């Protein structure tokens, strides 16, 4: 998909650009800080009167011309329709009635949130957004903020209004009452009806996006449509928006855009940025696979703006991480920085624009390459209900918290959640992944090699999917404080006989091979009289499998030799070594990108620790060339010397320059 969008975008609400004084301030900021590619105007709420929409559109159009005169693009966001907030009813606004509103599973209407099956609501929303586009002719127009069917007050599981129930009866070939459908969705035998319900609402969402896009295209044919989504962890509408992307692209004849949403609100726990990066990578993979998306940007939030919130630097790091995981654009919300006054906006614009060269480099890499590493696999059609008491119907919540620590051990991850499309990539199977798998899914994983956490294997055993392995897994409650020792297996290298005592929590898993098992022990619980294993590997007719007994939550129980074992296992299960490896016991995250031929074209490195890393050695396998450049966010480009070249031209080892705590940099192969 051809990319012709912005790299850096600032989002501004109407209250901050209504007056001439405010507009002059914004224009001066843009002049003093070249490097902001786009200003994204938010509109009034969708339910305001058309007269108010028209008034703001006129003012925005005049301001947009001044912004464009500076060489800066202009785009639009429809502030509310069926996303975050209930749109208040106004006397002269959209004349919704109770029949237009969403209905929860108890039969109660939800004030202010209209169902997208309401023709009156769809027509009004399309007319409101088209009104702005006819005046401003923006580069793009985004629908809502986190467009979704659920999490509107009591709406946990989409809408049960009479229109939705009638349409679902036609879709499913069987009529269900609201009470019957609610009971089935919360029962233990719900897979078939649940999957139908999710697919049905994906179609409803796509129909809504198509009608809005058609209205905008008629008013402004040059405008690309965009969809604001919440990221996978939020679980809205399943998480696959492929039908929406395709509907918008088909309606306009142009690629659509997606803004992937998720708020990280403070700097207290920077590791939440890693989680967001991983989730963004998952969503980018889906958007890319649809073939309908050009600009892929992420939501960077900064409010509330106070001494305990998020710094300007953290916003830049968050954007860089998401771009390293596949986004080709970044979108910053200026929000309450305007209210803070003083130097806040100046500092924000200055830092964002100063990093434009780095973001542009990351954007170019993401457009020409894909993330590489172990494939973190989840198939949404088989996700189990986590029984979240706050969101009882949200069975398709996707989490990466049992995978995020792997990246901190130097094991890169890639994303291809639709397992049927995978091939030639070894997989990481965590508990969340295992819950989503059929036997066919898992066997396909083994064909290319699979590394499993202990509780993932336990889950697959519970479901009868690993009988062929002849290894029994059980939670090792009685092994608390047990000593673990590595065996002499070649995978352990110099770590053979390394031993340590660690805390073994209730979800730590121990394994007992049957006599006929071909499982090779990698680590044993040395003071366990039953002789159970802490880690093992198996090469069977189905493919390679390696299992590590710790659950995936490695807090307080990981050791340098265990980290080395995990890195070696990642290489062993795959058809080829991981594309990049950071050697030593380092708190560094490696995010490699490979071109279409599978050669490594860049590796982004993040220091996820609280101390500088000055002795890191990066090993790049199968690079596109032997000339390396070092880009650290905020710095100029530097060439870095190759410390050692091994295995002909296929592997490069390079000692990296110092990387401070929570700094990010990219090595580009040329």
Physical arrangement of strands within the biggest beta sheet: 13-12-14-15-22-21-20-17-18
Strand tally: 31
Low-pLDDT regions: 381-396
Provide the helix percentage. 25-40%
Global Rg: 26 Å
The end-to-end distance, rounded to whole angstroms, is: 24 Å
Give the class from helix and strand content and strand pairing. Answer: alpha/beta
User: What gross morphology would you assign?
Assistant: globular
Explain this structure to me?
The longest helix is centred in the first third of the chain and has 29 residues, at 191-219. The chain is α/β, with parallel strands linked by helices and 670 residues long. The model is unreliable at 381-396 (pLDDT under 50). The protein has a nine-stranded mixed sheet. The protein has an eight-stranded parallel β-barrel with strand order 1-2-3-6-7-8-9-10, surrounded by seven helices. The two termini are 24 Å apart. The radius of gyration is 26 Å and the shape is globular.
Give a quick set of tags describing it:
single chain, 670 residues, 8-stranded parallel β-barrel, 17 helices
Fold blueprint:
Blueprint: E1 8-12, H1 20-32, E2 38-42, H2 50-68, E3 73-77, E4 101-103, E5 109-114, H3 119-136, E6 140-143, H4 162-172, H5 178-185, H6 191-219, E7 224-230, H7 242-252, E8 256-261, H8 271-290, E9 293-300, H9 312-324, E10 329-333, H10 337-340, H11 344-354, H12 356-368, E11 370-371, E12 374-376, H13 404-407, E13 413-415, E14 427-429, H14 431-435, H15 439-448, E15 450-453, H16 454-462, E16 471-475, E17 483-486, E18 499-501, E19 509-513, E20 520-525, E21 533-540, E22 543-548, H17 560-573, E23 580-583, E24 588-594, E25 600-607, E26 617-621, E27 628-632, E28 638-639, E29 644-646, E30 651-655, E31 664-669
Parallel strand pairs: 1-2, 1-10, 2-3, 3-6, 6-7, 7-8, 8-9, 9-10, 12-13, 12-14, 14-15, 15-22
Antiparallel strand pairs: 4-5, 11-24, 16-19, 17-18, 17-20, 20-21, 21-22, 23-26, 24-25, 25-31, 26-30, 27-28, 27-31, 29-30
């Amino acid at each position: 998909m051809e990319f012709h969008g912005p790299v850096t975008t600032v989002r501004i609400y109407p209250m901050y650009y209504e007056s001439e004084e405010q507009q002059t301030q914004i224009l001066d900021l843009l002049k003093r800080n070249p490097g902001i590619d786009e200003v994204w105007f938010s509109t009034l709420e969708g339910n305001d009167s058309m007269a108010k929409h028209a008034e703001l559109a006129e003012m925005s159009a005049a301001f947009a011309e001044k912004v464009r005169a500076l060489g800066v693009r202009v785009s639009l966001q429809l502030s509310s329709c069926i996303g975050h907030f209930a749109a208040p009813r106004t006397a002269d606004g959209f004349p919704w009635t109770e029949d237009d509103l969403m209905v929860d599973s108890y039969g109660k209407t939800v004030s202010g949130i209209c169902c997208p099956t309401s023709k009156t609501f769809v027509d009004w929303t399309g007319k409101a957004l088209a009104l702005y586009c006819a005046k401003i002719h923006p580069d793009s127009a985004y629908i809502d903020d986190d467009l979704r069917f659920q999490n509107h007050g009591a709406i946990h599981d989409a809408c049960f209004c009479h229109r939705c129930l009638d349409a679902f009866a036609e879709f499913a070939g069987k009529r269900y009452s609201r009470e019957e459908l609610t009971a089935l969705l919360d029962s233990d035998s719900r897979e078939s009806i649940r999957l139908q319900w999710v697919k049905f609402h994906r179609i409803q969402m796509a129909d809504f996006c198509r009608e809005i896009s058609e209205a905008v295209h008629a008013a402004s044919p040059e405008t690309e449509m965009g969809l604001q989504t919440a990221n996978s962890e939020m679980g809205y509408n399943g998480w696959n928006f492929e039908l929406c992307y395709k509907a918008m692209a088909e309606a306009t004849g142009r690629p659509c855009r997606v803004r992937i949403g998720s708020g990280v609100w403070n700097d207290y726990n920077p590791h939440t940025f890693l989680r967001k990066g991983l989730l963004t990578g998952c969503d980018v993979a889906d958007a890319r696979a649809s073939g309908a998306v050009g600009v892929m940007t992420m939501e960077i939030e900064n409010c509330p703006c106070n001494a305990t919130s998020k710094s300007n630097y953290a916003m830049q790091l968050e954007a860089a991480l998401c771009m390293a995981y596949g986004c080709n654009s970044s979108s910053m919300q200026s929000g309450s920085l305007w209210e803070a006054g003083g130097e806040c906006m100046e500092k924000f614009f200055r830092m964002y624009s100063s990093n434009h060269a780095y973001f542009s480099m990351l954007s170019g890499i993401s457009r020409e390459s894909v993330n590489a590493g172990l494939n973190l696999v989840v198939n949404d059609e088989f996700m189990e209900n986590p029984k979240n008491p706050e969101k009882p119907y949200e069975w398709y919540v996707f989490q990466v918290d049992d995978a995020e620590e792997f990246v901190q051990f130097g094991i890169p991850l890639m994303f291809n959640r639709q397992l049927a499309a995978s091939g030639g990539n070894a997989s990481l199977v965590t508990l969340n992944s295992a819950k989503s798998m059929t036997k066919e899914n898992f066997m396909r994983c083994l064909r290319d090699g699979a590394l499993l956490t202990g509780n993932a294997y336990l889950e697959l055993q519970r479901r009868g999917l690993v009988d062929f392995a002849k290894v029994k897994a059980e939670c090792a409650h009685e092994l608390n404080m047990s000593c673990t020792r590595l065996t002499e297996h070649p995978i352990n290298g110099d770590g053979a006989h390394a031993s340590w005592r660690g805390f073994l929590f209730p979800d730590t898993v121990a394994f007992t091979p049957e006599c006929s098992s071909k499982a090779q022990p990698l680590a044993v619980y040395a003071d366990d009289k039953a002789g159970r294993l802490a880690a093992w590997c198996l090469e069977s007719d189905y493919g390679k499998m390696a299992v590590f007994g710790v659950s995936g939550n490695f807090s307080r129980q990981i050791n340098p030799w265990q980290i080395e074992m995990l890195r070696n296992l990642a290489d062993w299960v795959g058809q080829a070594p991981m594309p990049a490896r950071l050697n030593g016991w380092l708190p560094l995250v490696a995010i490699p990108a490979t071109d279409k031929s599978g050669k490594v074209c860049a590796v982004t490195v993040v220091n996820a620790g609280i101390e500088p890393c000055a002795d890191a050695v990066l090993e790049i396998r199968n690079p596109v060339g032997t000339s390396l450049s070092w880009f650290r966010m905020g710095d100029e480009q530097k060439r870095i010397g190759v410390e050692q070249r091994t295995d002909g031209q296929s592997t490069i080892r390079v000692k990296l320059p110092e990387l401070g705590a929570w700094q990010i940099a990219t090595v580009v192969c040329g």
